[in-house]
């Protein structure tokens, strides 16, 4: 087990640390002088951190690639109110030096209990065709194993092992509650859509070392993959009504809700509209929770800018807690070791928009 995790940054600010990380992203950029420097995104199971290496870069440029594991010595400090790592030394780790459990975040919830909860919800579906279809997916050992372990997204929400199952169980709970308030909703149809809307993520994403896209995921996307999976399983449910098949297909391809978010169709019936909004709500609530968790060590109730939500966030728990006597908050000024002269600070958008959830 590692001695230092990215989640420990607040306790190690302005200190030299030595630890191991997985390379989530690697870029080689030029300084103003024309010499190269390394800009990395590093990860472990507690999160990700941006890292820069300014000196002796030529010696390590070809020594590693994305998804490799590195042993790194460097300085933890803050830039623009976010922790970053200035790398002094690094080396590539061998497979025998790696405990993979250190690098991929995983749900803290009990996977078996989540799967049981999902099965209990599915057991309440009344329509025999829809119930048989969902149970056919759950009974497939390959699909079931992947469904229990896959993340729900690469970075934006539920981006951890077990994230897909966690997200879908949460979505089922919301669907169950809202159906009581809107009795005109076909609960069986809504539940089926909730179960299937992201099932293609098990083939769209790979999560052996870090969360990234498979070739099929990049080329097709999870919705196209889901239509293929649906067609294969419908062959196991004889007499499945064509009308129900069309409605399920629409639930799948419309759940992103807007053309700009990659939805081929807008939701056109009540269950599709509800699925979209509840999926969007659950995704955004998890994105907020995760952002607060990442910045739990900050004193300010305001977080840094959240790119997926297009705004900084206010942690109401911190905001309403008794105030400590402290000096006025001052934003950290850039240090020479943090910012190359060729880089300019990111502008703050005057009209922040909402980025796609996925």
Fill in the CATH topology of the largest domain: Hypothetical protein af1432
Widest β-sheet, arrangement of strands: 1-2-3-5-4
Report strand %: 15-25%
Structural class: alpha+beta
Q: Percent range for helical residues? A: 25-40%
Radius of gyration: 23 Å
Quickly count the domains: 2
What is the name of the CATH class of the largest domain?
Mainly Alpha
Helix and strand succession? EEEEEHHHHHHEEHHHHH
CATH architecture descriptor name of the largest domain: Orthogonal Bundle
Q: Give the termini distance in whole angstroms.
A: 31 Å
Which stretches are poorly predicted, pLDDT < 50 over at least 5 residues? 331-358
Report the count of strand segments. Answer: 7
Q: What does the main sheet amount to?
A: 5 strands, mixed, barrel
- Principal-axes geometry comes out as globular
Q: What integer is the average pLDDT?
A: 85
The DSSP helix count reads 11
